[in-house]
């Protein structure tokens, strides 16, 4: 008797796990991949759009049946997930399954900070977590000849912990290329004590030092309370204020309503077992930005595509075993890496085991052209894989 597996979401995690499942499961078993559009943007390339090294079309991901043989692609918006019943409701109907994988990602939620949505609409603030936002920020930077650029983290958690600091480095690099760097102050502001705090204080301080070396300010433990786009001013919970001429912002993130509505996690993010990625519901797994994976030190695993890709094999094994097939025992290592672009086609690289007790063991390697090329190679591989 054939089995049915439903995978929700066609980001890096969903695409990879669907492909791994097709490799593991018999041809008679159905794999349904549900996404609202099957038309997205490669996240690791967004800041290259901002820098002017890519266009949105260059890094568009539009998976086809050729790239996903043996997988049924269903264009639909998920409206309700019933994990205990392994049932999914969409705007085109309902789907029952023997195993369910949730890979729905995270959404931007600027309305969580008073004034931020209005500032984004008026373009006194610009986000860089979408292709159009990154392109808009690129154009704004070309016009910025003097004043203050602030890169603000407006809420926690958010996707790609390195991204705000990469944005500052690459914005400074573009301003330098335009001849405006000496006249524009660039600062980063975060509610965290250090950049990428999950990687540990040594890595965080090394990044602060790199920012300083490039003349970029770092303001820590500043939680924004309000954005006044008309006055171009930030108001913080401690009562302090900071002005800006252009605000590049990481908006607060939230899980999609359908993921938050599962009841699997009190805060909406879906808790998963650190080694198997299984949820609290039998036969249901989750990976990627919608999840909450708690590390041995109590901090969450960063929301990054490299971890979603690494989790795909683990989940494929777990699903196969759940369906009664022979498969390796699921075991997520927690090993991952990320690149921090500094401009000039140089990148640093952070790499290590994030599940190492009692705290992640991460090494930050010095910037080099080789690491920049590694990131370009990864980009090319993903685009070729999914756009076949």
Automatic annotation (TrEMBL):
A GO molecular-function annotation: oxidoreductase activity
One protein family per Pfam: Pyr_redox_2
Gene3D superfamilies linked to this entry: FAD/NAD(P)-binding domain
Span of domain FAD/NAD(P)-binding: 4-306
Signal peptide location: none
InterPro entries reported for this sequence: FAD/NAD-bd_sf, FAD/NAD-binding_dom, SQRD
Highest rank taxon of the organism: Bacteria
Protein name: Dehydrogenase/reductase
């Amino acid at each position: 008797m054939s089995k049915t597996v439903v995978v929700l979401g066609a980001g890096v995690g969903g695409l990879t796990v669907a492909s791994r499942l097709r490799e593991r499961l018999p041809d008679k078993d159905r794999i349904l991949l549900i996404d609202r559009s099957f038309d997205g943007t490669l996240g690791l390339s967004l800041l290259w759009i901002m820098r002017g090294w890519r266009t949105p079309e260059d890094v568009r991901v539009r998976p086809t049946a050729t790239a996903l043989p043996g997988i049924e692609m269903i264009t639909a918006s998920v409206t309700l997930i019933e994990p205990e019943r392994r049932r999914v409701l969409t705007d085109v109907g309902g789907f029952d399954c023997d195993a369910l994988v949730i890979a729905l990602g995270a959404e931007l939620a600027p309305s969580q900070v008073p004034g931020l949505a209005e500032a984004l609409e008026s373009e006194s603030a610009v986000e860089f977590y979408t292709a159009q936002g990154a392109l808009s920020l690129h154009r704004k930077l070309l016009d910025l000849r003097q004043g203050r650029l602030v890169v603000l983290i407006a809420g926690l958690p958010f996707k790609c912990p390195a991204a705000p600091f990469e944005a500052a480095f690459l914005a400074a690099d573009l301003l330098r290329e335009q001849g405006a760097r000496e006249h524009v102050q660039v600062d980063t502001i975060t509610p965290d004590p250090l950049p990428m705090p999950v990687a540990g204080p040594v890595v965080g301080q090394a990044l602060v030092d790199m920012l300083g070396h490039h003349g970029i300010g770092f303001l820590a433990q500043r939680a924004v309370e309000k954005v006044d786009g008309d006055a171009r001013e930030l108001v913080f919970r401690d009562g302090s204020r900071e002005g800006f001429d252009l605000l590049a912002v990481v908006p607060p993130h939230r899980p999609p309503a359908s993921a938050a509505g599962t009841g699997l996690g009190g805060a909406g993010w879906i808790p998963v077992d650190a080694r198997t990625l299984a949820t609290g519901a039998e036969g249901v797994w989750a990976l990627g930005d919608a999840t909450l994976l708690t590390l041995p030190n109590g901090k969450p695993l960063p929301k990054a595509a490299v971890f979603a890709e690494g989790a795909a094999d683990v989940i494929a094994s777990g699903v196969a075993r759940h369906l009664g097939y022979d498969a390796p025992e699921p075991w997520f290592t927690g090993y991952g890496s990320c690149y921090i672009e500094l401009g000039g086609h140089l990148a640093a690289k952070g790499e290590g085991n994030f599940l190492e007790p009692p705290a992640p063991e991460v090494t930050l390697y010095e910037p080099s052209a080789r690491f920049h090329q590694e990131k370009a190679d990864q980009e090319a591989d993903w685009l070729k894989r999914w756009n076949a």
